[in-house]
Amino acid sequence: MAKFNDLIKGLRETQVWRSIFRHGYAPTERNQSLAISSNFFLHLHPAKVRRHALKFTYTLGLGGLSFFLFLVLTVTGILLMIYYVPSTKEAYNNMKDLEFVISYGLLLRNLHRWSAHLMVLVVFFHMCRVFYTGGYKRPREFNWGIGVVLLLLTLFLSFTGYLLPWDQLAFWAITVGTNIASYAPILGPKIRYALLGGNIVGQNALMRFYVLHVTILPVLMGTFLAIHFWRIRKDGGISGPPIEEVGAEEEAAPAPLKTYGLMGLVKGPTPMVEKEPEDTEFTFPNLVYKEIKYAMLIMIILHVFSFFFNAPLEELADPEHTPNPAKAPWYFLGLQELVSYSAFLGGVLAPALAVIGIILIPFIDRNPSGVGVWFSRERKLAIILFSIFVLTAVILTIIGTYLRGPNWGWYWPWQEWPKH
Amino acid sequence: MPEEKGGKIKRRDFMLWIGWGTLFPVFAGMIEETVKFIFPNVLYEPATTFRAGRPEDYPSDSVTFLAEKRVFVFRDNGGFRALSAVCTHLGCTVRQEKKGFFCPCHGSVFDANGFVLSGPAPKPLDWLSIALTRKGELVIDVAKFVETGYKLKV
Which domain holds residue B89? Predict the structure, then answer.
């Protein structure tokens, strides 16, 4: 054992090791700071974070979890690309190969699909968390907007993803989705033509959605994620209750516009300004270890789930027959319910207004109080209004999922669907 | 700001104009290239017209669903008519049930002539162009619509 320790010690003193890791491992504050600031991947974090931001009950880890799921989806997605051919003749057979022939093909596809479903859920919950804790308020208005864009990208990625197996779900989702686009004002039919690469749902359409799914949308997602994270740092870390100033009454010396330190050159408010040192903790290991443990837990849950439940795959795409009922995945059933009243109002106008409305929330709700606590009593009206929106979305989704049957008719759960 | 010299354009402003005047057209050009590139100029899609057999193939007072083309062919005393099975709402294939047509996607209901009875469909099912060739074969064009009520007399 002693020899082993000597070996490790010797290794740490080699030039190679020292060229990679430029600081020691001894638990000194300096090393804890350097673990973050000298690490390419970890320097996304500040060296120290407010204790408040570390509380699981405050963030529920939803933002980090969304990002982790994006990473899982990227890795599993790239692996799936090795076998998947975006051809109307081969795509469906590739799915069958993944299921029955390729080692761990089914597991990878399950992981990819279930992570995607979970990501939609988690991103939506993350938005709700940020709303109910007032995290979108000044100076974080812009980042809230970026977050909404990320939610939309998540949905577009999900949509373009489930089109690729070229099963019945895929074919009719492209048909319905591109027809909804054609209801957009003025440019509608042109958008549909461009999305399909023609007038029919066929090879051109599959290729286009494939390119969107594996390159255009992920690149956009990565870009907006980078901006999102960058802005968290620039807006002074994640939201929290206002910082109590040291010596509140007396006129404090004007805060320096630039602080030089571990965080490098930082403009504007930082979590460190005018604040007791006891309020913060070192990111390493306090936050980093939490993140790793959380990621491992989710990975285990995803594997267990993927072991027991297979990703859905319907019959081979059949342009002659629409399944009855033809239902989208759960996260679009609210939209499908809306569209069943009117294609333009439900498919174009209502979603567009909802998105614009959500982006504008920080500029409409100018009330600065109630940041950093869940369901602050000072924000009653805002909380009620947002809850109505969330509830509407949930109710529409439940209706679409459980109460709609053949011919999109209303069926209670205890009513039997007519047989054909 | 230095004073203008006799209303002449200053060298710096002139260069600035050249700069912006080049930059914007270049960007506009790149956008145009990209957008035009996305729209295909030639399509290898199946023809929209197809031969649908001889009139004798259809019994009188019958409705035939040509699944592959998504067309209903009606034959009655008045003659032939072709009704598109593509729902005018969002393009799903309607199915014929008893009195009319039902769309499985969002619940539109059409009567036997394709008129909307209920649901989100904004307009009736399309009546398609149907004609006879010189050899006496029926020809239907799924992309050519005729007025509601048109019948081909044979």
Answer: 49-146
Q: Would you place residue B79 in the very low, low, confident or very high pLDDT band (cuts 50, 70, 90)?
A: confident
| CA–CA distances in Å: residue B107 to residues A173, A202, A228, A336, B154 | 16, 25, 41, 11, 35
Q: How many domains does chain B have?
A: 1
Q: Which of B44, B86, B89, B90 to mutate against chain A (most A CBs within 10 Å)?
A: B90
Count CA atoms within 13 Å of residue A327 on its CB side: 21
The domain spanning residue B80 has which CATH number?
A: 2.102.10.10
Inside any domain, residue B8: no
Query: Does residue B107 belong to the interface with chain A, where contact is any CB pair within 8 Å?
Result: yes
Tell me the pLDDT tens digit for each residue of A25-56. Answer: 778 888 888 889 888 888 889 988 988 888 89
Instruction: Report pLDDT digits (tens) over A65-112.
Output: 999 999 999 999 999 999 999 999 999 999 999 999 999 999 999 999
What ipTM score was computed for the predicted complex, to two decimals? 0.87
A141, A363 contact by CB (below 8 A): yes
Q: Which domains does chain A have, with CATH numbers?
A: 48-241+257-317 (1.20.810.10)
Strand B79-84 versus strand B49-51 pairing type:
unpaired
Q: Which residues of B touch A341 (CB under 8 A)?
A: 120
Query: In chain B, positions 32-71, which contact chain A (CB-CB < 8 Å)?
Result: 38-40, 43, 45-46, 67-68, 70
